[in-house]
Amino acid sequence: MTEQRPRIESYVAEHPGVHFSALADALDLANGQAQYHLHRLVKTDEVERAEFYGRTHYYPPDCPSWDRAALALARRETARDVLLVLLDGPASPSDVAARIDVARSTLEHHLDHLTTHDIVRKDRGDAGRVTLRLVHPDETRRVLETVDPSLAERFVDRFIRLVDNALDP
């Protein structure tokens, strides 16, 4: 049974910020089995655990705190789409919402998280116009190269988009 711990630790090192269910699915572990071994790995400081907006993510111990937040948020499809648009350069919220095909309220929800963790900045220019820009473009590019949202995470984000679009015509 303990042979699972090196597999889990290795998977977390290769996929920093992995969500609990994505890890369990990828390693074909039952939830209880994954919980047990992750608890042991966290207790011995071989893996670190962090909660971001209702989801538990796992990291190697040497993962910097900015990376932790950026990795967790970039695993959410809509936030990842926002970051990908902003890699092209600064843009207005309206332009970003149109390019990723989401309601402004959905965009603002994700922007709240991205700005809280110093990943995106809102600059106010002439006449109060807002421009969105990446705070650390090179680091964001590196994070995005590391992350691939799981199928489950994509379904959750798409469901949220569907509901949001139905409520905000």
From TrEMBL:
<dbReference type="Pfam" id="PF12840">
    <property type="entry name" value="HTH_20"/>
</dbReference>
<dbReference type="InterPro" id="IPR011991">
    <property type="entry name" value="ArsR-like_HTH"/>
</dbReference>
<dbReference type="InterPro" id="IPR056504">
    <property type="entry name" value="HTH_HVO_0163_N"/>
</dbReference>
<dbReference type="Pfam" id="PF24266">
    <property type="entry name" value="HTH_HVO_0163_N"/>
</dbReference>
<feature type="domain" description="HVO-0163 N-terminal HTH">
    <location>
        <begin position="2"/>
        <end position="71"/>
    </location>
</feature>
<protein>
    <recommendedName>
        <fullName>HVO-0163 N-terminal HTH domain-containing protein</fullName>
    </recommendedName>
</protein>
<dbReference type="InterPro" id="IPR036388">
    <property type="entry name" value="WH-like_DNA-bd_sf"/>
</dbReference>
<dbReference type="InterPro" id="IPR036390">
    <property type="entry name" value="WH_DNA-bd_sf"/>
</dbReference>
